[in-house]
Amino acid sequence: MLFIILHILNADYSFAVDCGSNRSIRGSYNTMYEFDSTNLGDSSYYVTSQTRWGVSNVGKLYQAPNDSKIIYSNEKIQNAVDSELFLTARMSPSSLRYYGLGLENGNYTVLLQFAELGYPDSQTWQSLGRRVFDIYIQGDLKEKDFNIRKMAGGKSFTAVYKSYMATVSNNFLEIHLFWAGKGTCCIPIQGYYGPLISALSVTPKLYNLVGRPDVFSNAELKLATDNFSSRNILGEGGYGPVYKGKLPDGRVIAVKQLSQSSHQGKSQFVTEVATISSVLHRNLVKLHGCCIDSNTPLLVYEYLENGSLDQALFRDNRLKLDWATRFEIILGIARGLTYLHEESSVRIVHRDIKASNVLLDTDLSPKISDFGLARLYDEKNTHVSTGIAGTFGYLAPEYAMRRHFTEKVDVFAFGVVALEIVTGRSNTNNSLEESKIYLLEWAWDLYEKEQALRIVDPRLQDFNKDEVLRAIHVALVCTQGSPNQRPPMSKVMALLTGDAEVVEMVTKPRYIAEWQYRDGNSSYVTSSYFGSTAPEFTRQKEIDPLTQSPAITGSSHEGR
Fold this sequence. Notes:
This protein is an alpha+beta fold. The chain has helices at residues 2-9, 148-151, 218-224, 266-277, 309-314, 323-343, 397-402, 408-423, 439-448, 465-478, 489-497, 510-515, 527-530, and strands spanning 15-19, 25-26, 32-36, 43-47, 53-58, 70-72, 88-91, 95-101, 106-114, 133-137, 140-146, 160-168, 172-178, 196-197, 199-205, 214-216, 233-237, 240-246, 252-257, 287-291, 298-302, 358-360, 366-368, 537-543, 550-554.
């Protein structure tokens, strides 16, 4: 699979053309657009010396003063990713075809770039011209009576992008723009009526094989997300913002714009994406693929209608989740982690399990997102929540203090999320009375008083007490201080479902006891619990503005 990916990423299996231009240019996202300056005759063609692509023209412009098939413009083009591509355009009296020659068989994205250069935006009769033509890809009609200016909201000199999927089966691709006698012929002068195109690009897609990711072009994702409009932002995590988008084939996607550059080269990055995308489970968000021709890497995921679990539980517009639904969410997260840790051919420690990294589908089934992202970064380049890959409030002690991580850091975080689902509140809430600010402390206090059910979300009027107590107990077992005391996720699943006996003996972790040992200025030292080699940290009554979790400061910043 790696050989196939690297093979298709090779430039020989894609091409781009700056139509009508006499020189090649490199686009802003590293796409090389080749020149296309040949002034084709009434029935002629041109093929590049490398025989990678060709172009043909049929027809004679009626009474045109110079019969030129190339239009030039110095107008400023609105909405253009690469404005230099719109200085020229190729026009045809009747039929204009571009061909991809010797392409690797497979699926491709065909991106066509248009701007109307022939009709001015003015209050004169010259602005009344209309250019109408049809677009065929591989012989299939994609656009009937396509009008560039109409697509641009009635404006000339405004970029219009059209993206299509095409299948190459005989190493050959045809893009056909065809004038069918519609529109005007004599405005602003004779011979401005045929199809016109400014640039095009053809890039491979990696469909069909399980685990093979899609490689999207940046222009394609810009089109899908309305140029990464702020209106399409779904949220922002430690790795970067996420945008909602829609592909030409109708798929709704979520595009994660990684805020940090990977330490890997492009081919290695795609290889890691291929590895991650091969991890498939009903409780994991599907990774469709990636984009590598943008300034920062982009990851493309399936879109889930009901957003993230933290929004469902904690926000003002939260969903109404009854206990049966919440328990299924807890079980689903446990299943997903069991698969990542113990069942997948690629064993993955997530390292940032939290409510915002659990998404809900149409049926409110949970899917874990962002798994495997730590594989794309080295230890010097992990995300911003803590300086290590994780988020305050969900960090296991051994990981927070010693940067020691195993799958048990996910088990710890799962326990915190399970308690959040039971209580309907976040792990830290500074607006509550002091005894309730920190969820783990509050839960342990009530558990030791045999009043554990008092932590249940008051919005839950009807619930299965046995299931709730089992979930609370398992969550407290998962958040034990020593990783050796935490069960593997397969055991967690068995405990939750009742297939394994819930042991009643569970003791408060030492880190909880030491949190509660406060001196006069409400601080405490944790170094005795974590060992003499651990840095000395002092906990203060402050909330981290980024994470809404307790700010942790200390005399050492090692491992932060």
